[in-house]
Each structure stands twice: as structure tokens, then as C-alpha cells.
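**Protein of interest**
===
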Amino acid sequence: MSEELVLWHDFNVALVTAAAGLLGLLFVALSIHIRTLSAARNAELRSVARTVFLGYVVSLTFGFLALMPQTLSAFGVELVFLNLAATLPFAAAARSGLRATGVGYDRRVTVVQFTAGFGLFAVALTGAIGVAVGEVWALYLSAAIAVLSLLWGVFNTWELIFRIQWVSE
């Protein structure tokens, strides 16, 4: 295992734990509001929920990949593929969410959520490429993006819960 990745072991265990916990809480929150989310007119809310779910899964996967015994460059290649693979469902959710109508909620919130998400993916891909070529500084960038992704997911979960409540009234 890469010496650089060994030094990040505790961080990655904490990342996996936090991401798994938040993913579980997201399932509970969405399950409570399943009727509102499944309504045809709430496609925007479902799209936001999908992106929050995706963000937690990407952070969880990042942590698991970093815990596997491997070289730094192999980890970087995995991160590049992870980010590219996650961009596709994110783009599909953004397309669906930005086209949706009928929610009656401030659309600027949704636009900011998706725009920031694409920004996170761009920076994450930059960090992943840096890790793939063996740059240790890119580990710091990638780790910061993983934590920022969790925090952004918490904010979006909070926002989503209140939007669902507002729509279901």
C-alpha cells in the first residue's frame, strides 16, 4: 500500500463512516416523504434527492477505494473513473430537475445546487488526475472535495426536506 494512503487511513475510515451514516439518514428522510416525492409534479425534488444520494455514494466510494491496498497512482485512476462515472447520472438528474415545472418553489435554489455540483465535479476530477500522476498535494484537494461534498449534501438534504414540506402542505 502506498505510504501516502496509509497516512490517510483514519481520515478515510471517518469519511466512510460519515458518508454511510448520512446516506442512511437520507433514506429515512426520503421514506417519510415518499408520497410527495413520487408525485409526477415533483420531478425537481426527485432530481435534487438523486444528486444528494449520488454525492453521499461518491464520498463513500472514495473512502472505500482509499482504504484498499494499492499505489497512489492506481487510486488516482480509480478516482478519475469514479468522477467520470458519477458525472453521467448527475447530468441526467440536473437535466431532469432543471426542466421540471410545477413545484412553485424558487428555481434559483435548484440552479445553484446543480451549478455548484458541476463545479465540485470539475475540481474533483482535477484532484483525481493529480493523484493519478502521483502528486501528493492532490490527495489534500481530493480529500477536501470529499468533505465538502458531504457538507454540501447535508445542506442540500436540509433544503430538500423543507422544500418537500412546503410542497406537501
About this structure: Residues 3-168 form one domain. The chain has a mean pLDDT of 89. The two ends are 53 Å apart (CA to CA). Residues 1 and 68 are 8 Å apart (CA to CA).
